[in-house]
Amino acid sequence: MFVTSNFARQIAEIEAGLRKPVIFVGDLKPRRDYSDVRDIVRGYWMLLERGEPGEVYNLCSRRSWATQQVLDFYVEQSHTKGIAVEIDPERLRPSDVMLL
Fold this sequence. Notes:
UDP-galactose 4-epimerase, domain 1; two-stranded antiparallel ribbon; 4 strands; alpha+beta
């Protein structure tokens, strides 16, 4: 399950009146690099044209976002105000990578 789509689904259900205004989350501290898919596709194309076989390339934005920041953004964009956030122990991953 992807955290961003899970947040979006929960907010959509709240806005549609299908659930109470509570979002259930896991650990909000991990940081992830989010990139626009168009930038990544452009990078793949450049690598096809100019990349060296056998070399390692990392395509990313070089900016990390805490899961908390992503959640805050989604909640701010919601038409429903006063959404609560609750930690769900089932969503906590002991092996979660803090920076990816």
